[in-house]
Each structure stands twice: as structure tokens, then as C-alpha cells.
Amino acid sequence: MKTELTPYQARVIGCLLEKEVTTPDQYPLSLNSLRGAINQKSNRDPVMNLDEVQVQQVVDELMKRHLISDRAGYGGGRVTKYKHRFCNTEFGAFKLSERELAIVCVLLLRGAQTPGELRSRTNRLCDFREVGEVEAVLDEMMKREDGPLVAKLPREPGRREARYVHLFGTDTQPELSEPAESMPVASAADTAEPGRLAALEREVASLRREIERLQDALGIERETLQ
Q: Is residue 135 over pLDDT 50?
């Protein structure tokens, strides 16, 4: 896959893909709207908390790579707004069907997913009537002539389904400039037991994903429980 994205870049592209479909009247997005989409607590994994300076830094990186375009005056306003050039544009590297775009979007926003999770979490972007349809599209995406877009991970113990990941980059987050006043102050526990803190963070993330899976299975609107 030629397009390599950092996790922050993947989040920005995923947000632009999502909002183009779900809120077309508000697309392209201003920097403030894009920041809100990036830091959204629902339908995101992991949840991020980037400030405006950090978001602008990522946007500038993507602008230099011609994966985002900007223009002042969209909709008659003076605020600069941003739109993706990632796919399905005259400048995009490749074309995606509605279902392929929905899958890529969710994988960019939420990381590895099972076909069942993709079926429920793409419902605002496209329509999958059953999990088998998701698996068929995933299979096609792994066999594209221009290179695979997704990969299937080995099935984990205790899981009925294997998870799939996008092939647009790594899971390692790059360092972003951070204002001094927002830098966290390290406590004695932070410096003495970094391994313990990292383990707790992983456990919290795992519990959050499990809660979201249960909410999806029960048909509960996740936003109401945040």
C-alpha cells in the first residue's frame, strides 16, 4: 500500500471520510469542527484529546502530501475549511465503493474490527444486511489488483471471529508539539511504576471496547452512556 499514515493522520482522514457522508451539509470541515470530530468520545478508539495546534500540525502534514485540500470561503464563509483527497477524487490514489469506503473509514477511526463489529459500526455509512456480505467485501479488499487495503489477523483465543486491520500505516503514534501549560506533571508513581501505569491504561482500553461491544449487541445508543 503506497499511502502510509500515522495514527493521527489516519484519525484526520477517517473523520473527513465519515463527516463527508454523515453530515454533508457541514462538510468540508473547519479546523474547530475537525478537532471536535477527532476528539469525539463515541465511535473512536482510542479516544484522543488533541488541541488546535496539534490538529493544525497533522493537517499541515497531510496538506504537504496532497491528501487534504483547504480553501477559504466554502459555503460563503471566511473560515478555512478542509476536505480529503484520499480517495474517490480526481487527485485520489484509488477508488472505493460505498461499502469499501465505509469499512476503511471505521478501521481508520476504531482500529482492528471483526466482521460483526464492522456490520454494526458502518450502519451510518452504508448498508450490510448480514455479516457474510461484510466478509465478502473484506475478501475483495484483500485481493485488489492495486494492492490489498486490509489484512486479516490471526483469531485470538476466546473470539469467534478474526479481526481485520487497514494497511495504511502503523499503530505507533508520532510525537506532536504540546503547549507547556498542557503538559502533564509526572508524579512519583508515574516515574517509579511506568509499567504498571501502561498496564492499567491497556486494561481500561480493553474494558471500554468490551462495553462498546455489549452496547452494540444490545442495541444501546452509545452516545447516551458517555
A: yes
